[in-house]
Design goal:
This protein is an alpha+beta fold and about 425 residues long. Helix content is about 45%, strand content about 15%. A 5-stranded mixed sheet has the order 3-2-1-10-5, sandwiched between helices. A 5-stranded mixed sheet has the order 4-9-8-7-6, with helices on one face. Strands 11-12 form a two-stranded antiparallel ribbon. Helix 7 crosses helix 8. The longest helix has about 100 residues. The protein is elongated, with a radius of gyration of 46 Å. It starts with a helix and ends with a helix.
Length: about 425
């Protein structure tokens, strides 16, 4: 099936196979001429690859991975190296406009002229943004790279050691006769579980379109033929005789080998079942994504002001789901006369605000002191009133206490008389008993 595909040329870009001449390579810097490590060369031989066989790269933002795939002797590709991306800027989602700091997503082409051995970022190559799809959809930007130095403002940045190897893969493939290699840049691995996680994202339809190319590679393990018509990607399609693909025009009538259709449909059936299952399963929350052209424009404006040297927040703004904009409070460095003027104005504004806060604080302190004095005076008045009332009630209490004391002598007299009467009665009774 795949041999037939290769014979039809569907999976090969429509360019002549001509190697780079010496003049295109002679100016390479020493870093650009470093050979691949022996271990990688040994792994390639074990997988049926030669050093100069064709190469392809895949990028996954969410995982932060850049993969290198190379053609084996049977024409199919296998992964030979995987690198952790040191830095990429922006969020998940495509690049929309110059200055939005988004690292691109899509299918891009690198030719020898895009390789830069004397880059300010150690080594680099331009990924080819904007491509036909980007231009058809009005997306702008330039100089989007894979480079070293681990610093990114819309690029995919690697360490210097990593870019030396990645650069060597492309260099060797060009020396072997490959005229261009493909870079596939995705937001994440386009599995059923991940597509289910991001099904409500504003970029979902764009990602579904990229997934067709992703799936074609998963099925064939050969980089897909990429065209653009009706402002969308189409993959592994052959236009009818005399027709061409116009990025902004109507898509022409196309054909595709039955073997590819059958393999793709079988893959899609398995995917659909997995997707439905993923809808019911728990999954990690989605990562931040760009909210379309509107957020891209907001970030682009921030980039322009920053480029002019204005004092702007150190991080780019974000557009929230409710339409509000969030900016960090921490401001960036001052690196121009305009920035210094803005800093002076900010300082003046801050001083005025602080003086006003101090004035209001003094007023509040005076108000609280006045309220405290008033409360103290009231408390003293209430205490004096209570003392006066207590003085009025004192004689009554004294009389109440004295009355029982005065009654005590009379009670003692009555008790004494009673005792005397009892003694007299007893005496008279005894005298009667003894004849007295």
């Amino acid at each position: 099936m795949f041999a037939k595909l290769a014979r039809t040329g569907i999976l090969i870009a429509a360019l002549g196979v001509a190697g780079c001449n010496d003049s295109s390579m002679k100016d390479f810097a020493p870093e650009a001429n470093k050979p691949l490590p022996d271990k990688i060369l040994a792994d390639m031989r074990a997988k049926g690859m030669v050093r100069t066989s064709s190469v392809m790269a895949r990028i996954f933002k969410e995982e932060g991975k850049l993969e290198i795939w190379k053609a084996k002797t049977n024409g199919r590709y296998d992964m030979v190296a995987s690198y952790d991306i040191c830095k990429w800027s922006g969020k998940l989602g495509p690049k929309y406009t110059e200055g939005d700091r988004q690292a691109p997503e899509g299918f891009y082409t690198v030719r020898p002229s895009q390789m830069n051995p004397r880059s300010n970022y150690h080594l680099s190559f331009n990924i080819g943004f904007p491509n036909a799809y980007d231009r058809a959809n009005g997306r702008t930007g330039a100089n989007l790279m894979v480079h070293g130095a681990c610093s990114s403002s819309g690029c995919y940045s690697m360490t210097d050691a990593q870019i030396e190897q990645i650069y060597a893969f492309g260099r060797d493939a060009f020396q072997g006769g490959q005229t261009e290699f493909q870079i596939q840049a995705f937001p994440f691995r386009m599995t059923a579980a991940n597509m289910a996680r991001y099904r409500n994202d504003p970029n979902y339809e764009f990602w579904k379109m990229l997934k067709v190319g992703y799936d074609n590679f998963e099925v064939t393990k050969v980089p897909p033929k990429v065209d653009v018509c009706e402002k969308r990607y189409v993959f592994n399609q052959v236009a009818a005789d005399g027709q061409t693909f116009d990025p902004t025009g109507t898509c022409p009538a196309t054909t595709q080998p039955d073997s590819l259709k059958s393999a793709y449909n079988a893959y899609q059936s398995t995917y659909d079942a997995a997707f439905n299952g993923a809808l019911k399963a728990s999954a990690p929350p989605p990562k931040p994504t760009i909210a379309g052209v509107k957020e891209a424009s907001i970030v682009s404006d921030w980039s322009k002001r920053r480029a002019r040297g204005e004092r702007v927040p150190i991080d780019p703004p974000s557009l929230n789901t409710d339409g509000s904009v969030t900016e960090t409070a921490r401001m960036g460095r001052i690196d121009s006369p305009a920035g210094r003027r803005m800093a002076a104005l900010d300082a003046e504004k801050a001083a005025k605000q602080k003086a006003e806060e101090q004035r209001l604080a003094a007023i509040e302190a005076a108000r609280q002191a006045k309220e405290a004095a008033k409360a103290q005076a009231l408390a003293e008045k209430e205490a004096a009133k209570a003392q006066k009332e207590a003085a009025k009630e004192a004689p009554v209490a004294t009389a109440t206490i004295a009355a029982p004391m005065e009654a005590a002598p009379e009670a003692e007299t009555q008790a004494a008389s009673a005792d005397e009467s009892r003694v007299t009665r007893l005496k008279n009774k005894l005298l009667g008993m003894f004849g007295g």
